[in-house]
Write a structure and sequence with these properties.
heterodimer, A: about 575 residues, alpha+beta, FAD/NAD(P)-binding domain, B: mainly alpha, 11 helices, about 60% helix, about 0% strand
Amino acid sequence: MATEKTDVVIVGVGAAGGILAAELGKAGMKVIGLERGPRFKTKDFDPHDELRYFQRQDLRPNIKRQPVTWRPNASAVASPMPVQNYGNQAGGGTVHYGAVSWRMHEDDFRARSHTLTRYGASAIPGDSSLADWPLSYADLEPFYHRAEYELGVSGKAGNLAGSKINGGNVFEAPRKRDYPLPPLLADQGETLFDAATRKLGYHPFSTPRAILSQPYNGRPGCTYCGFCQAFGCHVGAKSSILVTKLPEADATGNFKLITGAMAYRVNTDNTGKATGVAYYGVDGSDNTIEADIVIVSTFIYDNTRLLLLSKSDKHPNGLANSSGELGKHIMAHMMANVFVGFDDRHLNVYMGPSAQKRTIDDFNADNFDQKDAGFIRGAQISIGTGNLEGGPISFTTIATPPGVRRWGGAYREFLAKYFTRHAAMVAQTENLPYADQTIDLDPTVRDAWGLPAPRVTYDWRRPNERARVEFMQKKMEEIGRTMGASVVWRAPVSPAGAPGAHHEGGTRMGNDPKTSVVNRYGQTWDVPNLFVVGSSTFPTMSGFNPTLTIQALAYMSADAIVNRYRKNPGALL
Amino acid sequence: MSKHDESRRAFLVGAAVGAVAGAGLKSTDALAQNQARPAADTSHAHANGHGAFFNDEDSATVAAFTERLLPGAPGQPGAREAGVLNYIDLALAGAYSDQQDFYRRGLAALDAYCRASNGKPFAALTAAQQDAVITALEEGKASQFTWPSAQAFFNTVRTHTMEGVFADPVYGGNKDFAGWRLVGFPGAQPLFAPADLQSSNAYGSGSIIGLQARKG
């Protein structure tokens, strides 16, 4: 049993933890990062191997060693989820992600008050815990900017300080500067999608992605190899934490990364203050890091689980849970698909960055009138590849057009004809928060360390969410027909469950210690030297991928810790 | 040298360096080759090698079953030509060893169902009878199955068949890039040029690249 002392211990060195490690280290604080998985190098990602990385999910948690269980509602029995869509290594999900990097809209930060003003209280489902964020877009804008420039994001501004720019996202919130890098090249699916959506009066644009369209900060530009989402980048053009912030953290001389470390408890003293973290080492040893500041920045399941596992006499319901809100209000993007197939041309969508390549934002957030829509809040609609990955194994996992069986001679003909002649649209929906969508500890299933598995209770099939999915699928079918596709077909929506990706919530941020777990800086209300940073703090999810917002929040937390907390430890608000 | 060529060259140099460290991959390659070679030497009927896990009887069933899931046709390779049996046989002896019992019990149930419904083992049925059996499994209508369920068995074998057709040949299937030739996938290309992205034609420049070729 080893004990080490440090200024700051960070549990989980991914999208948020990597930024905090670098920024706190630069400020002279001694930082130890605990990471459950390994630390890879760019040269480890040379194999362009779809079986290993897409199908067998080599960069995701091992579902047998690290199970997460799921049930649709509190009266059902949970069973282990077959796939876990988050990272399991230094750099976290940014190693395998599609690198889609959004700033949320201004109204995304005040989804509740904005809805009340525009549509009235009756528009909000009675059981939804829809809430405003405790900060505004303007508060976060400088940190979005830092994330875009320090990491390297490619895109085109659509709203530069209030002036709208054709070809960018005209619905985006005003930005002070354009992206640091021009948009990535378009493929054939994007070209057809662009023309069709313009014809329909919508506003398509190249999806902003943390993938270098040109050399930047000593890293090379994208090679358009297509082995992108689900893979590590073989040239380091994907701006993952692995090739951006971890080298910065190393260079400070103040950062130490411990891999293979399974944190199982945040330790507290008899005043209720956090004193450090207990973890199992890669050799099974039981170890302790003593620290002045504890930062928890794992994926949402473990953020909640670790706080629940850390209960004590002072914190009988779990750490930072005096509100009783810990583990509640979780959300998941529903990824509704429509596919297009062409008889007269190829699209070759296996080329280029594979996820959500080109977007319309016309039906996201409150960018369209929802007065008679039958639902509130929208979806980002984009074109790309089925399952966000464009190889042939991925293609065998998507739905077939009506009348085409998923095996046999006709299926072979379908694969042979449409693999290079199809594209996939996806609507990434802003599912609302509900208090009964939760994470807690599974009563029976345990992980390889003997710890109770996180248990997710979630079912996307709420009336508001069903109506939104139906609306978006019709929109995508309209776009598909306008693209001139020979065949347009929708995937059946998943029957139940916690679909897709980007699970969010569980340690909700707010302005009131009675109704939230952390404040805008991720500082827990109950334990001022304990911070939780990541998408678990999101009060609402938006229709956008969460990573750039996670990263902006991490920069904001780092700024608050370095410039305010360090001088005067205690509550920041 | 164009920028395009420069990055291709940089990539190839990197790949050559990587080959020295790729000892683990090499041994897998050798295993895959050893599986395929004796079969090819003896008879084409046994082009689907096995021996790591399946016995002869089960291998005949799996070869026949997977060929109906993705049957070959003139100019269009199917599961047998791609070496799907070899892929699944190796996978069950390695990465999927936790599914050995799933296959053992599933194949026994399949055999019992075929003998009860048709009086013959699966491999001895006509193609139309085989398709009817597979349909019954897919729809959960085949008795004799307990665990795995008929649908679970169908879904798993279907998934493994697609893996065997379309995964890199390093895993023992996709023989001579049969699966990638079927759908027009050029494999593990390190880069595509702007002209490739702008083309509405099939990608035609250069040969299919697999992991072994890249390491060679």
